[in-house]
Every structure is written in C-alpha cells, then in structure tokens.
Amino acid sequence: MRGEAGIGKTRLLDELAGGAGEELGMVVVRCACSPYHRGSALYPLLAGLRRHGVTVPDAGGEPAGPGPARRRRESLAALADALAAEATRAPLLLVVDDLHWADPSTLELIATLLDGPRELALMLALTARSDFRGLPQRTLQRIELGRLDADETLALVEHVGAAGTLTPGVAREIAQHAGGSPLLAAELTRTALATPGDGAPAAATLYGCLMTRLDRDSTAREVAQLAATIGREFDRTLLDAVGTIEPAALDWGLERLVAEDVVVPAGAGRFAFSHSLLQEAARSSQRKRTLRHHNREIARALLTRFPHVAAAEPERIARHFEYAREMPDAVGHWRRAGRDALGRHALREATLHFERAIELNARTPDGHDRRATELELRLLAGRAIAAHAGWQAPAAVAHHARAERLSAGLEPSRERFDGLLHLASYRARDGRTADALALALTLLPVAEAAADDPALLPAAECQLGGLLVACGRHRDSLGHLARAVELCDRGRHGADAERFGHDPAAVALAHRALALACRDDHEGARYAIAAATEVLRDRPDPRSQAVLLCAAATAAHVRGDHDDTRSVAAAALALARAEEIAEQRAQALGLHGWARVRAGEHEDGVDELHRAVADWNATGAPAGGPLLHGLLADALAHTGEPERALATIDEALRGVEGGERWYEPELHRIRAELLLRIGDMAGAQRSAGTAVALARRMRAGAWERRAAAMLAGLGGASPVA
User: Quick one: CA torsion of 671, 674, 680, 685, rounded to 10 degrees?
Assistant: First the structure.
C-alpha cells in the first residue's frame, strides 16, 4: 500500500493484522522501518522478529570465520529460513511498515522473499509513501491510497466524535479543514471534543491539534517532547535515565499521553506514538536549544547507561549527536556505523554512513585533525563504493582523487600512512603500477617516523615488495618481502588483516612465491606458499587466503604444471565465489580455464577464459588484465584461432604500458608463437628475441628459459643481456 503520510496505511495494516490473527489464526510479525535506522542493515526485520520471540542469527559473525560477504549472505539466508520456519508452523503474515525508510539490506531480503517459493504460506503486507519505488513490482499487488472525499471525511469525523457532542455544523467544518486526510480529520475531531467551548475546531493543523491538547498539561507536553526526541518508539527506562524529568512526573505524563491517544503502550515499559506525524509534531514543538540539549543527553545516557544498545546501534548515537550539533562526536559514531556496516559487507549502508560523516566533518574547525579525518573517511567511502560498483565508479574515483590531495598536505603520521597505502593500491588497480610504485616508495620513511605503530613498517614493505614484483623487479622485491614477514607480529595477524584489508605476512609470502617462480626457483616458491599457509592457519583471513591461492596457481602456471594450476585455481575460485572477492574470482577462473584448454577441454576452457576477462573488466580494475588476456591468447592459439589470439595478445601488451610488466616476457613469447603459426618467421624471431631480452633484464629465469628455447627453435641467436 502506498500513499501520503497520514492517509491511513498503518490503520489498514492494523485491521488486516487483527483479522488475520483473530479470525484466520495466522501468525503476525510486525516490523516498522524508522528514519533513525535507515542505514542499519536489516534493523526492522531483526527487531520485529525478536519482539515476536524468534531467534535470529548474529549478522556480525566471528571475525576469524568466514569473510564479511559470506557472513552477510548467510545472515540473509538465515533470516529467510527463520521466516520460512515460522510459516511452516502456521500461515504467516509479515507486516513491514514505512518501507521508504528501509535500509538497502532489508529491501534486498524482502525482494528475495517475494521471489521465493509460491507454496510457502507467507503473506507480506508492506506500506510506503507515494514516491517509493524500491521493490520489483512483478510480484506485488499494489494498492494506491488517495484522500477521502467529502462524504467519507464527514463519516469519519462523525464516527470518531460519536461519543461526544459535535453538532452537524461543527462536524462539516472539521471535515472541510481535514481536506480528505484521515489522520488530520481524526485529530481535529479529538481536539474539538477535548476543548471547552462550542466544539468548533480549535486548530487547523496536526501540529496545532497536538499543542492544543498538550498545552493543557505542561508535564505531559515535556514528556511528549523528550519521548519524541528519542523516536517513534521509546522506553520508559531511557526517559528516566536522561534525568530531566522526575520519575513521578514521568509516569503522570505518560498516563496523560496514553489517555489522549497521543501514544500507545507497546510492551513492558515501552510506548509508541500513535503516528509518526504526531511524533514529529511533538519533536518540532521544542525550542532549538532544548531540542539540542535533549539529543545530547539521550546520546550520553545511551552511551553510559545502555552501552550494549550504543554498541549495537552506532547510527542511533550518531544521529542524536548530529541533532545536538556535537559534530566531532557525530562524525566518530557515523564512522563507527560505517565500519560496522563494512564489516558486515552491507556496502550501500556503509557508503551512506561514511558520506554523512564526511558532510558533517566539513562543519568542524579546519586543521590537521579535520583533514586527517576526512582522508580516512574518503578512503573508506571509496573502498565501500568500489566493492559494489567497481573501482572506476565515478563516486569512488572522486573520493580517491580528494584523498590524494588531502594526503599530500599532511605531515608524516598514521593517517598519512594509511592514505598513501590505500592510494598506492588504488593506483595499482587503476593500471598505474609504475605510479603506484613511486607512491609506495614514500611509505617507508613515513612508517619509520611513526615508530609507536609497529604495524606500519611491515605493511609498507609488503606493499612495496608486491609492486616491485608487478613491475618485474623480482630481485629487488625479495628483500622487502622478507623484511615484511620478519617484522610482522604473529599475535597481530587478525588485527592487521582487518586494518589493511589483508594479512601483510601472508600476502608478502604470496608475492615472494610469485617472484621466486618467475626467477625459476620453484622450490623456494613452494616453501613461501607453505609458510603463508601456516600463517593463515593460525588466524584465517579469507581475502588473504584468496590472494595466496591465486599466487600459488599462478606459480604453477609459470612452471608449466597444468594439473597443479587447475586444482589450486579450483580451490581459489570456490573461495573467491563464496566470499564475493571479484578480482581473485576472475583471476582464478582464468587460470582454471587455461588449464582446461591445456588438458584438451578446449571449448569449456575458452568459455571460462572469456568469462574471466568479462568479470575482470566489470571490476573496473585494469591491473591484472595482461595475465588474463595472455592466458586467453595462449588458449586461442591452442584451439586454432591465431588471428583472434594476436588481437588479444596486442591488447595484453597495451595493458603493460602502465607498468605491470611481470608477465610481459611471456606475452612476447606467446606472440612469437602466434606469428610463427601464420607464417611470419621474421616477426616471430623478433618477438622471441624481445621476450628473452626482457626476461634477462628482469632476471626472470623461468620466462628466459622458455623464450630462449623457442628462439633457438626459430634459428635465432639469443640477444645480449
């Protein structure tokens, strides 16, 4: 049901729920979305199920268990299963009110339920404002509620005023003032009945109705204003904890508000305003100074007296501090809400929180703290957007561009280090590997200057070493990668993985394995992979594990072990799919497809490679493209399509221009093979010679051995190093 505020949506739901429960024996679960939790993932559904007594899963999960994406998916599935289980015991009516305030995850789960099995005894009744368009319409019966006509409005006024002494003339006047709004008609009638005099309307608006009734009792007015500042639903214990109203006066005020139908009981010690518009009218009736004071005291009471609520609902605390104009506190809690959402893979909610924090941070005094905070928030927002929309999404690009400018203006500090580290990763993903390396070289002095934070130096060494590998400077990378592993504190692996997005020790060992494989030291590569596996056994981190498995599969590809490439890539693919890690999923799929082609499964293998390239392009990250395009070109060569393969290898070679050159010798060797297949002997010799020269310059023995063998077969002399 859709319609404007006050049109009667909730009233109709009340009638529906009452009839379903009392007459049909259905189980009714009531959920309500709130403007105070529009960025809290699944809040209305979780709260509604808990009120109904249904055990719901913890959406957070254990940090050492599955990664955020899998935990979120499992949480959504568990909620859907809990509702399905209720529906198998008895037909279930799930009521969700005010969807226009719903968080993205709630809308996602409702859409899943709408597309669920038709045989499930589950009915959904949903309400929203007229302009809401957040759900697919194909499975919904839509009811548009308009205003009442004059006769209907008059009938409603007469019904509400039946127990009073309204004259026909007054009833018609009230109906005319209401303008077809059921809520306003009812409230005007109640106000007229409660006002001494001739019964004529004492107010013309909802706000006027409420204040006319509350002005007769200052205590009830004060309670209503404080309660409205908390939200549509509120708890007596929180009202008492705020401490601005004496307990006896508090109880008296609540009693009067219930008698006036302003609020209704909603459980033991809990109350709710009978309509959100009444709550907003009571809230807006306060002086601005009083409203700010109430918000500040509510936030402080939640933090000190109800820390479990504050920990579970940082968005709620953030909003109260924001409305109190306590901007530094508001920014801090919006940031925490964003981090919590990011940890649950609620990416759209996280983006909303971080961007709100950025907006409020701009209202704090200018200086180092404000710029450092903005830098952190820009990086977090960019990370959240990139995770669901790709690294080239305009909003992600804008956040990173601003972060780069902010980072350049900060003195050496932890904040500047985090900015440089993230920006180096972003440049690398953006295909600017050489630029990323230049930025990473500035990390070491910043990390060394921050001696009080021992996690920075190993993270810097890992980043620098990994970029040196990507640039084909394998020998230079090994010392940095060894130092990263040496400096890592084994007791901090979990915390470092959460902070930097990966475990620096494990990822450094993965980079080392690839560098050693390219240098033809395959035993050393196997040892590095085993050491990284041991690191992650102590403190699992799915993203680091995916990076390691892809590195192991790539190392197997470098040494020409098709079977090992296939088996390890399959494991990497399963993990990356389960954890929704897009880049490693594409890389693993490409390696798996290449191995299938080499095993004679040409059609299926090439199909996997095409899907891998498409999946990689969808991430918006050019980096990594040379490997996948090279694998596809090699596969096309083996399936007898040299012309398509040459076009693909040329695209791969264009991809190395940003500095990602570690695979470049192999690309030229593949190109030489393709030119030979179409009869261009001279071109094949030039490409093979280039491959040998590049491999020697990189000291990449595996590539040199392979390219030199081909060049010798072509009758060419090896170029001078």
Answer: 40
| The pLDDT of residue 475 | 95
> Which amino acid belongs to residue 448?
E
Q: Of 530, 444, 531, 542, give the one whose Cα is nearest residue 490.
A: 531
pLDDT band per the 50, 70, 90 thresholds, residue 197? low
Angstrom distance (rounded) from CA 506 to CA 500: 12
- 88 and 122 assigned to the same domain: yes
Alpha-carbon torsion angle 442, 447, 450, 452, nearest 10: 180
Q: Same structural domain for residues 53 and 161?
A: no
| Residue 199 Cα distances to 160, 162, 171, 215, 548, angstroms | 14, 13, 9, 17, 79
Cα radius of gyration (the chain): 32
Same domain? For 73 and 162 the reply is no
How many angstroms separate the CA atoms of 370 and 602, rounded?
A: 57
Given a cut of 60, whether residue 60 has pLDDT beyond it is no
| Helices and strands per DSSP (H, E), number in the chain | 36, 6
To 5 degrees, how large is the angle CA 688–CA 691–CA 695?
145
CA atoms within 13 A on the CB side of 119: 1
The answer to whether residues 159 and 107 belong to one domain is: no
Give the separation between CA 710 and CA 678, rounded to whole angstroms.
Answer: 16
Rounded Cα distance between 372 and 365, Å, is 12
Which whole-number Å values give the CA distances from 603 to 568, 569, 610, 664, in the listed order? 21, 18, 11, 26
**Cβ within 8 Å of residue 623, ≥6 positions away:** 428, 429, 430, 431, 433, 470, 658, 660
692 C-beta neighbours (distance < 10 Å), count: 29
Instruction: Kindly state the DSSP code that residue 365 receives in the 8-state scheme.
Output: P
Cα–Cα distance measured from residue 633 to residue 638, given in angstroms and rounded to the nearest whole number: 9
What average pLDDT score do residues 631-640 get? 92
Q: How far is the C-alpha of 340 from the C-alpha of 63, rounded, in Å?
A: 12
Angle, CA of 617, 634 and 673, to the nearest 5°? 135
- From the list 306, 302, 328, the residue with the least C-alpha distance to 317 is 302
| Structure tokens belonging to residue 626 | 């040379």
Residue 623 corresponds to which tokens in the numbers above?
């980096």
Amino acid identity at 331: V
Whole-number Cα distances in Å, 237 to 225, 230, 245: 16, 12, 12
Contact between 514 and 525 under an 8 Å Cβ cutoff? The reply is yes
- Around 440, how many Cα atoms within 13 Å sit in the side-chain half-sphere? 28
Please tell me the least confidently modeled range out of 14-28, 223-237, 494-508, 562-576.
494-508
Residues 166 and 106 in one domain: no
- Of 181, 204, 227, the position where a domain reaches its end is 204
SS (H, E, C) 610-635: HHHHHHHHHHCCCCCHHHHHHHHHHH
Q: For 455-470, what is each residue's pLDDT tens digit?
A: 899 999 999 999 999 9
CATH number of the domain encompassing residue 677: 1.25.40.10
Q: Are 94 and 85 in contact (CB under 8 A)?
A: no
SS3 136: coil
Asked if residue 120 belongs to a domain, the reply is yes
**173, 110: one domain:** no
Is 66 domain-assigned?
yes
Residue 136: the pLDDT is 78
Q: Are strands 270-273 and 92-97 parallel, antiparallel or unpaired?
A: unpaired
Selection from 346, 452, 415 nearest residue 105 by Cα: 346
Q: Rounded to an integer, what distance in angstroms lies between the CA atom of residue 467 and that of residue 511?
A: 9
- How far apart, in whole angstroms, are the C-alpha atoms of residue 403 and residue 19? 56
- The number of residues making up the chain comes to 721
Phi, then psi, of 393 in degrees rounded to 5: -60, 135
- SS3 label, residue 231: coil
Total domains in the chain come to: 4
* Contact predicate 447/419, CB 8 Å: no
